[in-house]
Write a structure and sequence with these properties.
The chain has 14 helices and 17 strands. The protein has 412 residues and is of the alpha/beta class. Strands 2-3-1-4-5-6-9-10-11 form a 9-stranded mixed beta sheet, with helices on both faces. The N and C termini lie far apart (43 Å).
């Protein structure tokens, strides 16, 4: 059981203090929250600080291509039924950001930590988690991150012999292959809308057979495991077959899947499904995602979609035609500089929506929309786009830095 004894040496406490000072300077300069620079400074002074900060915590790690920030928030709310939680709720998910988050949790019992896919194995070594939630793997930032099969292999190697309980999506073959190296796995049928990264068997390279919701490789026998938890419509089915209703303020099937996984994680820490799911209702938005803001006299819902799988899920939850849509795409370092992924997104699903296009790479997106055969206008700014949109709530969909840009403009 976690306690409140101080595990920090004088050097570690100095590193935490220096990190907080660096973060404060960054905030004062208008350079963001300062969590990353603060963590970098702290780790430079004490390279073992992350491990020391996690010593007194029961830690949950959450990793995926999509949904990890939201799932982290849902798990944190559920575990607060049992005790105080520290979490990197704003999504700073590499070691520096995680270190900054944990530095504020000296009295916490639980650490609920979102982890970038590339860093999962290393962070797991440092913080000795009690549980690890694995949601999905799909193509994302291929100029920065590894190809999905390589990432799955990295996870598989890092999880081999891992003592933590692994809560993993049984419907994603890449996740199943990665998690199968661990001796203690709880399988959740959370679904997989995007399947284009999982048509070849990660175990042998053979062609996957995907009848209905099932999947298997006829060549090597690798197949979908039997889940003990499942998303079923608007309910979570637990290992005893009981159905627990999901009531969320967050929209879409993907967030119900996130809630199902979060309920399974909470149960591993003794929080009953009913309690966990009831607490999740309090989450209205996550780091600005799903917020409805007013700007220039219009209601605008802010939606984040960073990669083909994320865009597919987002298209399923927006208001139907003729709801106006603003699309914004950048290709900065945090986004990945390669925009070829635009051609993997089925923008034909936006037919009938009035569309305005903005962002650094608006012309790349315009070419893609032209080929998709949907009507659109290229606009110079968010303000210009809002003025051109016809009446109705505007659905604004943007990738990572474009989303931050949009929030700065319309969220003030």
């Amino acid at each position: 059981m976690a306690g409140n004894t101080d595990p920090l040496s004088p050097r570690s406490r100095l590193a935490v203090t220096a990190g907080r000072a660096a973060a404060a300077v960054s905030r004062a300069a208008g350079r963001g929250s300062g969590s990353v620079i603060g963590g970098k400074v702290a780790l430079r002074l004490d390279p073992d600080l992350l491990q020391r900060l996690a010593t007194h915590l029961d830690v949950v790690l959450v990793s995926a291509t999509n949904g990890k920030t939201t799932t982290t928030r849902l798990i944190a709310e559920a575990l607060r039924a049992n005790g105080e939680v520290v979490s990197n709720a704003l999504g700073a998910n590499m070691p520096a950001g995680i270190t900054s988050a944990l530095a504020g949790g000296s009295n916490a019992q639980y650490g609920v930590i979102e982890v970038d896919e590339k860093y999962l194995s290393g962070v797991a070594r440092d913080v000795t988690p009690k549980a690890i939630a694995l949601l999905n793997l799909s193509r994302d930032q291929l100029d920065r991150a590894a190809e999905t099969r390589m990432l799955a292999e990295r996870w598989r190697e890092g999880l081999s012999g891992q003592k933590a309980v692994i809560i993993a999506n049984a419907d994603d073959p890449l996740v199943v292959w990665a998690a199968s190296s661990s001796p203690n796995v709880v399988w959740v049928a959370a679904g997989q809308e995007w399947k284009d990264d999982a048509w070849s068997c990660p175990a042998c390279g053979g062609v996957m057979q995907r009848p209905g919701d099932d999947w298997f490789c006829a060549e090597c026998g690798f197949r979908r495991p039997t889940p003990s938890w499942a998303l079923s419509g608007d309910h979570v089915l637990d290992p005893h077959g009981s159905a627990w209703p999901i009531h969320l303020q967050l929209p879409g099937r993907a967030n119900k899947a996130n809630a199902a996984t979060s309920a399974a994680v909470a149960a591993a820490f003794g929080v009953p499904p009913q309690t966990a799911l009831e607490r999740m209702y309090s989450v209205q938005a996550v780091a600005g995602r799903y917020d409805v803001v007013q700007y220039e006299g219009r209601d605008i819902r802010l939606l984040l979609a960073k990669n083909p799988a994320g865009w597919l899920e987002t298209f399923s939850l927006i208001d139907g035609p003729p709801a106006p849509v603003i699309l914004s795409v950048n290709a900065r370092g945090a986004d990945g500089t390669d925009t070829s992924w635009l051609w993997d997104v089925d923008y034909g699903r936006l037919a009938g929506h009035p569309i305005c296009v903005i962002g650094d790479r608006k012309l790349d997106l315009a070419v893609r929309l032209e080929v998709a055969g949907v009507d659109f206008q290229v606009c110079e700014s968010a303000q210009d786009a809002v003025h051109r949109c016809p009446p109705g709530r505007i659905e604004a969909i943007a990738n990572y830095t474009a989303f931050q840009d949009l929030r700065r403009v319309v969220g003030n």
